[in-house]
Each structure stands twice: as C-alpha cells, then as structure tokens.
Amino acid sequence: MDEPRKGSVRRLLRDLHHDMMNPLTVIVGYSQLLIGRRDLGEDVRAQIGHILEQAQECSRIMKNVSQSVSTETNPNLKAIRLPNATRSRVLVIDDDAGQMERVAAILRDECWVEGCGGGDEALCRLLTDDFDMVLLSVRLLGTMQGAQFFKTLVVQQPEVAARTILLTPPDPTEDEAAFVTDSRRPAISKPINPDSLRVLALQTLA
Q: What is the pTM of this model?
C-alpha cells in the first residue's frame, strides 16, 4: 500500500479508536457499578457480567489497534515487552513524548512500558486494562492536571493510586508542590535520574 493510503488508514483507525473508547468506557464503568449492587437477581447480574466482558473485549481490541498504529507511526513509542512474561506493566501519563521514551529506556530491563498523553485517555485505559504501576506527570496539557487525575483515581481505583509515582516539573508551582505533599506518593523531579527512578519503581512494585 502506498504511503498516502497508509496515512489515510492510520488516521481512520485513530479516529475509530477515539470514537469507540468513549462509549465503551461508559459501558464498562456503569456495568462495574451495576454488577456490585446487592439488590440484583443472579440472572440480571449474569447478563450485566456478560455485557461487561464483551465491552472489555472490545476495548482490548481497540487498544491493540491503537498500539499497532502507534508503533508503525513512531517505533520509538512502542510498548516494550520483554521475553519474561512476569515483567511488570507500567503506564506513563505525560504529554511529552520524549519523556515517555526516556522512561521506557530506563525501565526496559524491568518493565513493559506504555504511554498516554493525557488524563482522560489514561482513565479510559485504566478502566479496561491492568497495570502494575503508574507514572504520573504532575503538569499536563489540557484541562485535567495531574492533581485532578490522581484525586479521581483515588476514588475510582485506590489500589492503582497506591502504586503511583509522581513526575514533578523542575519549577513546581505552590499548588503543584502542595499536591505532591498531600498525595503522600513518591515523587521524582524532571529531568529524571535513571538510578532514582529504578529504585522508586522497584520499591513501588515490591
């Protein structure tokens, strides 16, 4: 296939992923809430469970499509899966592609690293996929900053929030510094020191 047609297909797949993930996230989220209700009959619970399983399967398919497009477009951002299946999965939330590449390079011997450019996208991923650790940039582009994302994560998935490392800017504002202190999560300043990140990652994954 020639490059112009490949580019059109990539754009189509990226748009499809974006359009599909929003409703799928809603379906998964509501299904998880409903299935936890104690006033439901077993037959209704089973039906909701089936809906949840199918929505999660669709989400996995869309995630694989997105990863295929991303790795073909920019091989440097591809997920790093090592032969050892016990490697931990890490989600890096940062709008700086170079920063994600740096984290992947630092942790390539210990982890499989994936990246999200914003909080909204990351919340969708965490609803439909499992990660052993999250690296969250305190300062993000867009409407959802790191503090807002983390507070949402504490409510929705406290076990994931407890395995989060904060990436702080070299010049944090008062609000950002206060958030880091209040979060009680380990933090590392940018530019990232490789040894410090490895130590924090091992402690968090332990």
A: 0.61
